[in-house]
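Follow-up to my post from last week.
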Amino acid sequence: MDAIWMEPSCGRAAELRRGPWTVEEDALLAGYVAAHGEGRWNELALAAGLRRTGKSCRLRWLNYLRPDVRRGDFTPREQLLILELHFRWGNRWSKIAQELPGRTDNEIKNYWRTRVQKHAKQLNCDVNSDQFRDVMRHVWMPRLLERIQATSMAPSVEHAESSPAVYLMKKSAAPNSPLAGRSGMCHSSSSRACSSVSLEVQFPSNQLVMNDAGGAADWPGSERRGNGSAQSDDMFDGSWSELLARACEDGADSVLFPDFELGQDTADTTSGVWSTSGYNSGTDLQVLSASSSYYY
DNA sequence: AAGCAGAGCAACCGCGGGTGG
DNA sequence: GCCACCCGCGGTTGCTCTGCT
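User reply:
Got it. Predicted complex:
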């Protein structure tokens, strides 16, 4: 890189290194943190003999070296949670990351920017527009729920028992709901599109720690990138993007979204009623979980 | 095979909040 | 109350890899 590496024994103030971390630097940092713990990053950088800023050390540790950091594609559950929490908190990446064990704010932020914003751009929608939010609420999120449910129902899938307890029921919007109160939400001039979706997904405590990307292999338009070892679970890929493009171009009223009616009583033992038919029938949706309630 | 463009991700930067002197 | 320092967060940049032509 452009910076100069100097031996730690050199007494002079050395050039600070920038750019990608080397294996040696990683080992130094990880070893020092293991021995002395996190925090006081500037002091740590000096004591460990790293020619890095404290900020850089902290970032490297949190985003890469931390033992519990989890890598790989986001599962449908994680995608749904990201969408859900972004509705609630906006670009509060670190806050969102707290709800996804093993995932970093940087990773989530990158996901949002590379996947979600990319597709918003493809649809000629602003990612923060009500139009795009409606598409996410009424198309993407139900589809994710469907996939989560489908995965949990597959008897041969190893993680079937870890499916989230997802309930969905029709519910009127909470009066104090920020989303319900947002002006311009009814872009399609349809009152049914004004439904304020309260989504809520409960994950078993161990759920997000495991790599449960199974079941995504045959999703149409799934793309491979990077080392090619992972297959995307991106719900916006391929034909789905085309559908959404039509939705944005024509307006929700003129597009028949798939009816993600899933059979009742067909899921795991925790399954209740879940259907997006509320969208078509003019009622609001709510996903309930056994743990807490999210109201918009 | 080479060049190009786009996607994804790691890392950096600037700012604001918190804390201690 | 003020200042300096540290930490954490969100936004941005730039490098690397892949696929396409």
